């Protein structure tokens, strides 16, 4: 997949399960358990943040990237 799509796909679980519930808990204080769930989900996304950082700093423009098991690889299509 492209570099931008890889970054988006890596961020999507953190957005859906982390930031959105946390922001809802900030707006509606009675939803404190949702806030705790969101904060824990944000912290558990550390591996995704590392993948995003490596993709931004190491993958050249126009390259394709993919995940295999716990490793991410990139290649230049011909």
Would you kindly provide a written description of the structure presented here, covering whatever features stand out?
This protein is α+β, with helices and mostly antiparallel strands. It has one domain (3-75). The chain is 65% helix and 13% strand. The longest helix has 25 residues, at 3-27. It is elongated and about 55 Å long. The mean pLDDT is 91.
Average pLDDT reading: 91
Largest sheet: 2 strands, antiparallel
User: Per the principal axes of the C-alpha atoms, what is the gross shape?
Assistant: elongated
Counted beta strands: 2
Note the beta-strand portion. 5-15%
Oligomer: single chain
Order of helices and strands: HHHEE
Q: What separation lies between the terminal Cα atoms? A: 14 Å
Count of separate structural domains:
1
Which structural category fits the helices and strands? alpha+beta
Largest sheet: spatial strand order = 1-2
Helix share bin: 55-70%
Radius of gyration: 15 Å
Question: Helix tally?
Answer: 3
**Low-confidence runs:** none
Could you give a quick summary of the protein structure above?
With 78 residues, the chain is α+β, with helices and mostly antiparallel strands. The protein has helices at 3-27, 32-44, 46-58, and strands at residues 64-68, 71-75. The protein has a two-stranded antiparallel sheet.
Walk me through the topology.
Layout: H1 3-27, H2 32-44, H3 46-58, E1 64-68, E2 71-75
Keywords:
78 residues; alpha+beta; two-stranded antiparallel ribbon; 3 helices; 2 strands; elongated
